[in-house]
Amino acid sequence: MTHLTPSEFTLSFRHEPGTLFVLIGGELDHDTSDDLLDEVSQELRATRPAPRDVRLDFRGLAHIDSSGLTALLMIHRRTSARGATLHLDNRPPHLDRMLQLTNVLDHLTAPPTSTET
Fold first, then answer.
1. Distance CA 45, CA 39 (A)
2. pTM over the 0.85 mark
3. How far is 62 from 28, CA to CA, in rounded Å?
4. 111 CB neighbour count, 10 Å cutoff
5. Torsion on CA atoms 55, 112, 78, 42, rounded to nearest 10
6. Nearest CA among 31, 27, 99, 110 for reference residue 69
7. For the chain, first and last CA: distance in Å?
8. Which regions of the chain are under pLDDT 70?
9. Helix 66-81 crosses helix 33-46 at what angle (to 10 degrees)?
10. Spatial separation of the C-alpha atoms in residues 84 and 28, rounded to whole Å
């Protein structure tokens, strides 16, 4: 029997005018999804002016489970409340499959519906 070592979860942030970039690596699951949500939420609160776009880059994503999907839905809620558009960049096939099976891709990448006042 082969034992695989879980991929280390990593996050890195980059700011450009109007855009927050988040590079996500490793496993986005029950153990790490709160970290993603907390860190992105903190960056959203701290960034002034608020970004127009939030780009989550998944090129390093090894795995995602339902907790990770829930975190993405919560990030969408928070970006939309701030008037920002969420982008899901460099999605690996396993993420696309999950987004299609759960029918949330269009919802997650839809234009924002409200603006924070």
1. 10
2. yes
3. 8
4. 9
5. 50
6. 99
7. 56
8. 1-6, 110-117
9. 10
10. 23
